[in-house]
Specification:
Number of helices: 11
Distance between the termini: 59 Å
Largest sheet: none
Oligomer: single chain
Radius of gyration: 19 Å
Number of strands: 0
Structural class: mainly alpha
């Protein structure tokens, strides 16, 4: 059965994302995406009037999927600080998914020509982790809002971002399938993450 409406819209986005990652922004054509999505160019342009709009849409689609797979820190443990450690571990685990790193590289490559899309990629995989972590620190760990945001950035900076930098330069092993949250303990050595988080847990937040 032919896809229509929202189903077709999402199918085009998912298809476009894979094509952009395979060939880069420059070498991707609307003709190729229409063919891969098994839809007409007319239908494609009805959903996305330009290639840039389609690229931005595919980035937004990636952001939604990444955020959904992360969830909220409170879902990872009853203890609020153990939840922080395991959430940071999950972010690190998700960043080992090859398409995430490929999308980050694509955003860097297109940062000058498509700054809005590049900024959205940054938000998709970095702020999408920082924001729920900051909310958790504020709601569950007693941090003031501003301090929670700074602490969330710092925690991810210590526990996750060194891996991200290594992955961007091809120095880390990546996986081709979406890492499962239930495999967190086997995929990630949580010891160092827990130790880093414990330093913050012993620090009384300002009122």
């Amino acid at each position: 059965m032919a896809r229509r409406g929202d189903a077709l819209h999402e199918h085009i986005l998912d298809t476009a994302k894979h094509v952009f990652l395979e060939t880069g922004y420059d070498r991707t054509s609307m003709d190729t995406i229409a063919a891969r999505a098994a839809t007409s160019k007319r239908s494609l342009y009805a959903h996305f009037p330009t290639k840039e709009a389609l690229f931005v849409g595919s980035v937004e689609r990636s952001q939604e999927l990444f955020a959904d797979r992360l969830g909220a820190p409170s879902e990872y443990a009853a203890d609020p600080w153990e939840a922080v450690a395991r959430f940071c571990g999950r972010v690190r685990q998700m960043l080992s998914y090859a398409p995430v790193i490929q999308m980050c590289r694509l955003g860097i490559a297109e940062a000058v020509r498509l700054p809005q899309a590049a900024a959205q990629i940054h938000d998709s995989f970095l702020l999408a982790a920082e924001r729920p972590l900051a909310r958790h620190l504020s709601d569950e760990c007693g941090y003031a809002t501003t301090e929670a945001a700074t602490t969330a950035e710092g925690l991810l900076g210590v526990t996750v971002y060194p891996f991200l930098v290594g992955a961007l330069f091809g120095l880390e092993k990546l996986c081709d399938t979406v890492p499962a949250a239930e495999d967190l303990d086997t995929d990630i050595d949580l010891t160092q993450i827990q130790q880093a988080v414990a330093l913050h847990a012993r620090t009384t937040p300002s009122s």
